């Protein structure tokens, strides 16, 4: 596979747009707030959604809509989550109906998402007025506009695409996502949309999504909060012309490898853009008894407020790492644990066999000052491993969330 431009429009037959419609009163027209993704033909569709018991109306609606495994469009707004809101389900259905009417497709083939403040009535009237404009602006270069329209506290867009060959045909996969706060491994706390022109059956597409999610979106954390609106939706229209993938084999393996790469890139970009974050934290756990053990320990480390604070301060406080491992719930021998900190400027071992090492504090500070900091954990108990991603905890995180609603 190779990376290309285009995001959700990299795949044949997909258009997208992003417009301003005024979802939030007195908001600036410079920030788009309504995104639309559309396939020229109906698609195989799969989705995964938040595990939070409190689910937004769009999530509840999408869970029902996607049961038939077919979709053709996605409409999403920012600035209001339509969660725990007056007339929530009614307004989610009105979004579907408005997009369906403007696109001249069945309402059951339109997926809908919202993100923003919880508990406030959705300005559905503004969205209904904005949808025809979004349809009018649909184009094959619209991924950038759509990616920007779904952003809330994000500081950068999340957009990736790639191409590969399957059965002699060039297949494309592209995705956009938003996610900066309320990010915690429990599906992947986000809005994420992935498109492909690969011909793949709905069951195999769902299999790929569930498997990829477990090693990408489900391994990130920013703040330990799981949102009410998490959604990841994948559309496959088959326009690449490859023989349809209906079972495991070489074609599925090739598709899955590229699909995982796009999901991982989107997941890493969300962790790196955590609210107020200055560092992306990559935790690599090796030598574990099982992948599940490695993943649980890695998640505990990237979710530790003390570890995150230490990374923010460029403090090589490896004791925070061992403490987080210790309360992860996994059983292991602390005296078989080695820890190193690394980045693009080098690596410094700080702990061997559960005991501290003398190390160069200046070098450690330099290593921890880089944008991506790697926490390498070697458990020497097995041959399994897992990688998880998080970010540091900064003063700005409190500032951003202290007045998020107002």
Q: How would you portray this structure in words?
A:
The structure is a single chain. This protein is α+β, with helices and mostly antiparallel strands and 406 residues long. The chain folds into 2 domains: 2-272, L-amino peptidase D-ALA esterase/amidase (4-Layer Sandwich), CATH 3.60.70.12; 280-402, ArgJ beta chain, C-terminal domain (Ubiquitin-like (UB roll)). The chain has helices at 57-65, 88-103, 124-136, 143-149, 202-214, 250-272, 291-303, 305-312, 318-326, 361-368, 395-402; strands at residues 2-3, 14-19, 34-49, 70-77, 110-114, 158-166, 169-178, 191-196, 231-236, 280-288, 338-343, 346-352, 355-356, 372-378, 384-391. The strands form 2 sheets. Strands 1, 2, 3, 4, 5, 6, 7, 8 and 9 form a 9-stranded mixed beta sheet that branches. Strands 13-12-11-14-10-15 form a 6-stranded mixed beta sheet. Strand 4, helix 2 and strand 5 form a beta-alpha-beta unit. Helix 1 crosses helix 2. The protein is globular.
Strand content: 25-35%
Distance between the termini: 45 Å
Global mean pLDDT: 93
Detail the poorly predicted runs.
181-189
The main β sheet shows up as: 9 strands, mixed
Q: What's the number of extended β-strand segments?
A: 15
The SS-based structural class is alpha+beta
Which CATH-level-2 architecture of the largest domain?
A: 4-Layer Sandwich
Q: SSE string, helix = H, strand = E?
A: EEEHEHEHHEEEHEHEHHHEEEHEEH
Contiguous helical run count: 11
Could you tell me the radius of gyration in angstroms? 22 Å
CATH class of the largest domain: Alpha Beta
